[in-house]
Write a structure and sequence with these properties.
The protein is of the alpha+beta class and 83 residues long. The protein has one domain: Gcn5-related N-acetyltransferase (GNAT) (Aminopeptidase), CATH 3.40.630. It has helices at residues 14-31, 50-59, and strands at residues 39-46, 64-67, 74-82. The chain has a 3-stranded antiparallel β-sheet, with helices on one face. It is globular and about 40 Å long. This is N-acetyltransferase domain-containing protein. Keywords: Plasmid.
Length: 83
């Protein structure tokens, strides 16, 4: 999942609301299809993207440094087990 928040709507909690509702919806749909409970969600965020780092920090574990496979730029890799 990728998302962007238009400038006039930033700092209103929309990204957090989007991630929260998306994870809840996805969990409900996926739960009945999994042989075992739980699944992982990952996020790759550019090291210079402070707003996205703040959002990711509310949902995911401590990130590990990586390189974004698409851009080749330094990034942070976040992961979370959703049960």
């Amino acid at each position: 999942m990728g998302y962007a928040v238009a400038v006039p709507y930033r700092k209103k909690g929309l990204a957090k609301a989007l991630l929260t509702s998306s994870l809840e919806e996805f969990s409900g749909l996926l739960a009945k299809e999994l042989a075992e409970p739980g699944f992982y969600v990952e996020a790759v965020v550019g090291v210079d993207n402070e707003p996205s780092k703040r959002v990711a920090g509310q949902f995911f574990t401590e990130p590990k440094e990586t390189v974004d496979g698409e851009s080749g730029l330094p990034a942070l890799h976040y992961i979370k087990l959703v049960e």
